[in-house]
Amino acid sequence: MKLLNSLNLRGWLLVGTAVCGVALAGAVATFGSSARAGSALEERKLPMKFSWIACEPNCRGWVSAVGIITADTPKDFEEFSRGRQLGGATVVLDSSGGSVNDAITLGRRFRNLGLLTTVGISLQNRGGQSARPAVAPEAYCESMCVFLLLAGKKRYVPDAAHVRVHQIWMGDRADDAKAASYSAQDLMIVERDIGRLAKYTFDMGGAGDLLSLALSVPPWEDLHELDAGELKLTNLVTTDLVADVLPHVDVTAPAMAELAPKTQARFGAEPEPAKSTKTAEAVVPTGSVAAPATAAQK
């Protein structure tokens, strides 16, 4: 516990007013069917997938990003974007978080493309083939997803969405963080990654208040949900108008069954040169106890 307390203090001193975006969209939804609820939950536990939601001629369309951020996610996005004109498009996030360093890599790619970001669940084929696609706003953006949200040139969070923050942690010891032991090497990794997160967050236009909020919540407690005031204070939201990110798109949807898994972002080992990092993915817990990671640490 002395090391954990030191971690919080030294991490804060290291970055000053830096932001540790710890939040993303865990948009889990169903239309009353328990089978579909299970399917939605399983999708969020899988590695992130990207798909293009077309709605021409009414709107340009948008990118749906669903799942956890893994070491393969930046490469998967590059493959998805090949041959597509994505500049200035909107990304609708539905994720429980994932790898710290790979979220940073992906977020920088988003910003380079001038992408816009929001939180939601992309819906297609509502009421038949002729129905326009829509976005269900009652979604969850937890853990490292916030870095992707923060990467948007413009950022909108619906009133019904839930953005939650938490400390990031050593991936192989988050299941029982209090009982685990930590070395000086572990502390070095934590401080190194907080420094990376701080620089990234400043580059994206984030505020230091987000780091303060996140570092106050240890991994054995429930995630902290940011209210409307905190979303503005942390600069996660840059517009109150959905039309700024999703013009001509229906963002109202039928009432949806709510699933709100508790997850946290985690620190991992030193990234290998010219390769993705070894940070662990976020997990989908059962109840109040974190479940094993959904993918093996790379």
Profile the largest sheet: 5 strands, mixed
Strand order of the largest sheet: 1-2-3-4-8
In sequence order, what are the helices and strands, one letter per element? HHEEHEHEEEEHEEEHHEHE
Overall SS class:
alpha/beta
Proportion in β-strands: 5-15%
Average pLDDT for all residues: 75
* Low-pLDDT ranges: 1-37, 254-263, 268-298
Shape: globular
- The beta-strand count equals 12
Query: What fraction, in percent, of the residue positions are helical?
Result: 25-40%
Cα radius of gyration in angstroms? 18 Å
Question: Tally the helices: what do you get?
Answer: 8
The rounded distance between the terminal residues' Cα atoms is 28 Å
Question: What can you see in these coordinates?
Answer:
The chain has 298 residues and is α/β, with parallel strands linked by helices. Helix content is 30%, strand content 13%. The strands form 4 sheets. A 5-stranded mixed β-sheet has the order 1-2-3-4-8. α1 (2-15) runs parallel beside α6 and α4 runs parallel beside α6. The protein is globular and about 55 Å long. Residues 1-37, 254-263 and 268-298 have low confidence and may be disordered.
Main attributes of the structure:
3-stranded mixed sheet, 12 strands, single chain, alpha/beta, 5-stranded mixed sheet, 298 residues, globular, disordered C terminus
